[in-house]
Please model this.
Amino acid sequence: SWHTATDEGSPSAPSLFVQDVCDLFEDSLYERRQRRALGASDHRGAQPAHSPPSQGGVLAPLSDPLLLSQISERAVSASALEIWIGCPVRWFVERLLRAKDINPDPEPLLRGGLTHAALRDVFDGLRVRGAAKLTESTLALALELLTDALEVHAGPLRRSVAQERLPGVLRRLQADLERYLTHAAQTESPLQPKYLELPFGFPDEGDLGVFDLGEGAQLRGRIDRIDVDEDGRAVLYDYKGKNAPGAAKWIGESNIQIALYMRAAEDLLGLEVLGGFYQPLSGRDLRARGAISSEAPPGLAGVRADRLAHTDFKALIAAAATAARQAAGEVARGELEPRPATCDYQGGCSYPTICRCEL
Model:
């Protein structure tokens, strides 16, 4: 869509990108365009430009057999399933059309990538130097490793952020991570970080294959950190910005990623996974939130409500897997459905001009 006039009625030239798109199609596509009268607020004000317009309406389900075949054959990510549960049309735009890929990586995404790379280097560096765990006695070394890691991996951020803003962005990021490492060093745990940024389901990144969710659904992903003890008991961590949902919010708010990763770690690594946490890296409260079994070592849960009876813990993981299988089946069948109530983080449609859910 494009404007031929401003709200005040002054002529407005469409972007050259519109012409680039039109060049890819036959002239009939442009001839079927609709025009909306100035001031009209919905499709009822649209008039045919040269020929009768094609039928409009809410975005329809996907039906092309080749496309559906390609979708069903691909392994899905947990984050994609979370997006689908929130709104299939948002998944269509962001994960199938990948419309955002035409823009440079946004700053938050680059900061996130730098954060993950830096923490991987810190914990890996501790292990290489014989300090298996982050404790108060190894904190100074961890902070030194953090400074080095940020310097090594900051290239993409340096190229994308305005030079006058870059020092402040890097200082804030380093301050947040130093605060987190200091907090983590004060947390007693019998487990040690063993797997860092562990990929599964990516043929070019390691030996771990996809995780079979069942009913034809296959999962791929990257687990931020897995801490393991000498008996093979494990707890998973997924790094977050500020929002870290506790166990009570997992199913109702579609926070199923860490639960699916727990299932994958058990199946692919043979671990006895007894907990999974979302770890905030900024904000006032740095306590990890998630779900942990009552059979896990004491002291691992920062919030009492996150420690569950073992049967309840297993039931929660099973419920997340059920929700994931249902969503994966809907993805494979192309069952696009607008869900504006849960599309955006605060409610409302994220892509109204594509979804047209108001019609």
In short: Residues 310-333 form the longest helix (24 residues).
